[in-house]
Write a structure and sequence with these properties.
The chain is mostly helical. It folds into 2 domains: about 5-25 and about 150-235, no CATH class; about 35-140, no CATH class. Helix content is about 55%, strand content about 5%.
Length: about 240
C-alpha cells in the first residue's frame, strides 16, 4: 500500500527497537454472534449461515465478496464495539453500504486509505477507532501486508503512548528532539488522517518485512496481558 511518510517519525522510530518478548502472535479469533440481532442491519435480512463467527478470516471474506454490511457487523463484534452500534449505524444501511463500496473501489485504484478515511470519518461520522478497524480488514481483503493497524483505545492510546512518551523523554537528547516535539508526535487521539498517520509511521518502521498485522497483533496482545514492551535505542 502507499503511505504518506513522516520522515521525522521514521528517523526516530528507526533508532528504537521494540522488544515484544514472547507476545502471543495470534490475532483474536472471534466468537459466535447471534445473527437474529443483526438481520435489520443487512440489506438481505438473511445473514449468511457460514459467517456467524466474527473471525478475521470471515470479515475478510465478507469484504472480498462485497458483503459490506455483514463485514461491518462482524468487525463490530470482533472489536467488541457493540455498545457503540447506534453511533456506527447513524446513517441508513444503504448509505453505509454505498460508502464502504466506494472505499473498496478507491483502495483498489489507489492502494491508499486517504480518501476512505475521510469518507468514514466525515460522511459516516465514525470514530478513528472504528474507521481503523474496518480499513484494516478492507485492506487485508486485497492481500496487502502493510495495512492500517486497528486502533485500540484501552491498550494503544492509554498504555502504549505513555510508555513510548516516557522513553522519548528519557532519551530525547540522544534522539535529538525537544519536549514539545514529543507531545506533537504522540498526539494520536484525534480523528484526522494526519493523527492516524503518526501512529502508522511508527508501526510501519517497526514492522519486519512491512507486515504491520504481525507486529500490531503482538504489541496488542502484550499490552492486554498487562506487560509493556521493552524499548531500547538501536546502536548506531
Amino acid at each position: 500500500m502507499n503511505w504518506t511518510i513522516n520522515e521525522q517519525i521514521t528517523t526516530i522510530a528507526g533508532k528504537i527497537s521494540v522488544d515484544l518478548a514472547d507476545a502471543n502472535p495470534n490475532q483474536y479469533p472471534g466468537d459466535l454472534i447471534n445473527t437474529n440481532l443483526w438481520k435489520n442491519f443487512t440489506l438481505s435480512r438473511n445473514f449468511p449461515p457460514e459467517l456467524v463467527v466474527c473471525s478475521p478470516a470471515n470479515i475478510i471474506k465478507c469484504f472480498q465478496d462485497d458483503l459490506f454490511l455483514e463485514g461491518l457487523i462482524l468487525t463490530i463484534n470482533w472489536g467488541k464495539m457493540n455498545k457503540t452500534v447506534e453511533k456506527i449505524f447513524n446513517k441508513d444501511i444503504r448509505t453505509i453500504d454505498e460508502c464502504l463500496t466506494k472505499c473498496k473501489k478507491d483502495i483498489a485504484a489507489n492502494m491508499s486509505i486517504n480518501n476512505s478515511w475521510a469518507w468514514l470519518i466525515d460522511e459516516l461520522g465514525w470514530t478513528n477507532v472504528m474507521a481503523s478497524k474496518v480499513l484494516h480488514f478492507l485492506c487485508r481483503s486485497f492481500d496487502y501486508t502493510n495495512v492500517p493497524a486497528p486502533i485500540d483505545r484501552a491498550q494503544i492510546i492509554k498504555k502504549f503512548i505513555p510508555r513510548l512518551g516516557a522513553f522519548l523523554q528519557e532519551k530525547r537528547t540522544l534522539l535529538g528532539i525537544e519536549e514539545h516535539q514529543i507531545n506533537e508526535l504522540l498526539d494520536w487521539s484525534g480523528y484526522s488522517l494526519t493523527s492516524f498517520l503518526k501512529y502508522m509511521n511508527f508501526i510501519l518502521t517497526w514492522s519486519p518485512n512491512g507486515n504491520t498485522t504481525a507486529f500490531e497483533v503482538r504489541l496488542f496482545n502484550l499490552l492486554k496481558s498487562g506487560e509493556l514492551p521493552t524499548l531500547r535505542l538501536v546502536r548506531q
